[in-house]
Write a structure and sequence with these properties.
With 399 residues, this protein is mostly beta strands. 9% of the residues lie in helices and 34% in strands. One of its GO terms (molecular function) is calcium ion binding.
Length: 399
């Protein structure tokens, strides 16, 4: 409503009337009628630039008589909330009219929408909970509220009405990140000033992966152990399993023919391992039957090196065949003569790769048909003729 005090917004009920009391004392003449008609021709609203009571009466005999009652009670003139308006840029202001001056200088209060700020934060997979707060500015100083819009809340994120948030990076969904690998969790939030002003922006949390520890186990009982035997079983093997929540790292670091003390070890990415005994190793061949060498142990690792597991191989010996030869030509032969040469002897040599077994099994005075035989551990042997044997004494010369 236009008044001498400026522009005022007045709450109206369903009916507004200009009554006779309003028009009382108001002069109205032909000039007023002409002004109304001129305003209408100029596409202006006489009730805005002239006195409302100057609109005249519908039931008068002359144009300068009476007054009009304006009733705003018809449905077409009842404004609803949010109705569209049109500015009339042909509205003329009379500089001599103090009410026009008030119209020019009266403040027009407009709600300024808040301005949201993008927020970036960081977290480390499996690390500590991250906390923060999104922010917005508001020229009107209104109390602002925040909420997430247009999406499901990501795992580990808690978002509050005051814009504060927490993020828990220990959630299982982020465990697949490798060491140094990153992924972004991004949400859209809305800020509201409570007076119709709103704005949206994003909250982005970058998660950096860590190296989760793998776990290595035998695929079955005993498959992380093996056994070989000299001259008999020269290879052994088994299979291991590895688990790792980091994507692509549930594999082994391959090894090929890694030299041990008495053989070589290999393992592929799937955990299949083998051990090959060096059967020509003197230490292996020196083993006696059932004797063992210190176990061979090999360390296997997961691809990322976060887990390891030992492989143990036992090496057992066999009884290698010895070799016996005369120490010299004829040293394995002898001769005795009745009543003349009653003893004879010689020396033998023995070789055996089995440690401590290159010796003879001693024999002492083993009875023969006509005498006794003896041999010591070094291979020295003797034969003693039983000269009293009737068969010996019955021999003729040279027989």
């Amino acid at each position: 409503m236009l008044s001498d005090e400026g522009v005022k917004v007045t709450k109206l009920d369903s009916s507004v009337s200009f009554s006779p009391e309003v028009a009382e004392g108001t002069s109205f003449g032909a000039d007023d009628v002409a002004a109304i008609q001129q305003a209408i021709l100029a596409d202006q609203d006489p009730t805005q630039i002239l006195e409302a009571t100057a609109a005249g009466s519908a039931n008068v005999g002359a144009s300068n008589q009476g007054f009009v009652v304006v009733n705003y009670d018809y449905d077409k003139v009842q404004a609803e909330a949010g109705f569209d308006t049109t500015f009339n840029d042909n509205l003329a202001l009379d500089e001599e009219d103090p009410r026009s001056s008030a119209l020019q200088t009266a403040p027009l209060i407009v709600n300024e929408a808040p301005v949201a700020q993008a927020k970036i934060d960081n977290a480390r997979e499996g690390g500590e909970i991250v906390s923060g707060k999104v922010t917005a500015t508001d020229a009107d100083g209104d109390t602002l509220t925040y909420k997430l819009v247009d999406q499901a809340i990501p795992a580990g994120l808690t978002f509050n009405e005051d814009g504060s948030y927490t993020f828990d990076p220990t959630h299982d969904v982020y465990n697949s990140l490798k060491e140094g690998e990153t992924t972004d969790v991004q949400v859209t939030y809305q800020v509201d000033d409570g007076h119709g002003g709103k704005d949206t922006q994003t909250l982005t949390i970058t998660i950096t992966g860590t190296n989760d520890v793998a776990d290595i186990t035998p695929s079955a009982d005993g498959t992380d152990q093996g056994a070989v035997k000299e001259d008999v079983t020269l290879t052994t093997g088994g299979k291991l399993e590895v688990s790792d929540v980091d994507a692509g790292e549930a594999v082994f670091a391959p090894q090929s023919k890694v030299a041990g003390e008495h053989g070589t070890f290999s393992i592929d990415a799937e955990g299949n391992w083998t051990y090959e005994l060096d059967n020509n190793d003197p230490a292996v061949q020196a083993l006696k039957e059932g004797e063992t060498l210190p176990a061979e142990t090999f360390e296997v690792k997961s691809a990322d090196g976060s887990a390891s597991h030992p492989i143990t191989v036992t090496i057992t010996g066999t009884n290698d065949v010895a070799d016996i030869t005369p120490s010299a030509d004829g040293a394995d032969q002898g001769a005795v003569k009745e009543d003349v040469t009653l003893t004879t002897g010689g020396k033998l040599e023995v070789s055996d790769v089995d440690a401590g077994e290159a010796v003879f099994a001693p024999q002492s005075k083993v009875a023969g048909e006509h005498g006794t035989f003896s041999i010591d551990a070094e291979g020295n042997w003797t034969y003693e003729l039983d000269n009293n044997d009737p068969a010996v004494q019955a021999l003729k010369e040279g027989e």
